Amino acid sequence: MRPIGTLHLQPALDRPDLLAPPVAEALRAWHGKVDTSQFQVAEIDPNVADTAAFCATYDVPLDQSANCVIIAGRRGGETRYAACVVLATTRADVNGLTRRRLEARKASFAPMESAVSETGMEYGGITPVGLPETWPILVDAKVAEAGPVVIGSGLRRSKLVVPGEVLTTIPGAEVHDGLGIPA
Asked: Where does the YbaK/aminoacyl-tRNA synthetase-associated domain lie (predicted)?
């Protein structure tokens, strides 16, 4: 994999200390089913984990950075969750495509406390890797076509780098055109 910005990349499975426990568990469980050798990890300063600061600090173009947001959809007293993975140059279509996919009357970003407790990951580091198996993982088609992208590792102190098309092969992933809309 070609370098991205100034990140020092290492095979993710060689550095489980840089992965949230559900992320490390998922990568180990997928070994042989998903090409886990494509998952690289880089240690970063947790104070610059948020997308804009991270990209500026590590010279990563915004169109090579993808955000994973957790959406809560509600219908009839039931809450359903989904993850949306979009390029940092866009935002997730929460009240259109995502709401319809969840078959919800109302959809919004999951509250921080819910996102953290439901994923087992740190806020600001949430990634599609290692999410609950019952959740749909909606991946914007532009992420799938982007080549290597930077995503969260489940921790604020590191980032994963993986080819976008590999994200479409993880369990629960669905590719959707138009999930990422202009920011």
From this structure: 46-167
